[in-house]
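Subject: design request, 142 residues
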């Protein structure tokens, strides 16, 4: 079967996360789950809880970047190509890209499984970048 090549942005809304300034203790130890790359190794690939949480002030400091349940989470830096899905509303750090499927008729939510099973193919596409990364919105995409 032949699949057409399209930019990911045609199928998904993309938005990266953010990291509150570490020097401000008012941003951490809150109630909002905050996903880091290590959290992408969640059981069954669905993130329900995180090791670290941020406060409302921490969320505000990163532009209130909150991601809805069902958002596909894709690591962009370091461990490029790790994939999980948000099992609840949460925040993510700047090394992770959130992908919200625009139309499930065009891209099945099981895309996560496809991407996860092919992560070893994604990483080499980013070689030569320092650090290897994807980019959201403008700019080249791997």
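Subject: RE: design request

Done. Sequence follows.
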């Amino acid at each position: 079967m032949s699949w057409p090549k399209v930019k990911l942005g045609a199928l998904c809304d993309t938005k990266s996360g953010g990291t509150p300034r570490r020097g401000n203790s008012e941003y951490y130890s809150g109630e909002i789950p905050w996903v880091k790359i290590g959290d992408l190794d969640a059981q069954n690939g669905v993130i329900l809880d995180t090791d670290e949480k941020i406060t409302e002030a921490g969320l505000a400091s990163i532009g209130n970047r909150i991601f809805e349940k069902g958002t596909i989470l894709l690591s962009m830096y370091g461990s490029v190509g790790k994939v999980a899905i948000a099992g609840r509303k949460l925040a993510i750090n700047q090394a992770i890209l959130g992908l919200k499927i625009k139309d499930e008729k065009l891209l099945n939510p099981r895309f996560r499984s496809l991407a996860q099973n092919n992560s070893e193919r994604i990483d080499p596409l980013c070689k030569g970048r320092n650090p290897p990364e994807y980019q959201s919105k403008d700019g080249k995409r791997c």
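The mean pLDDT is 80.
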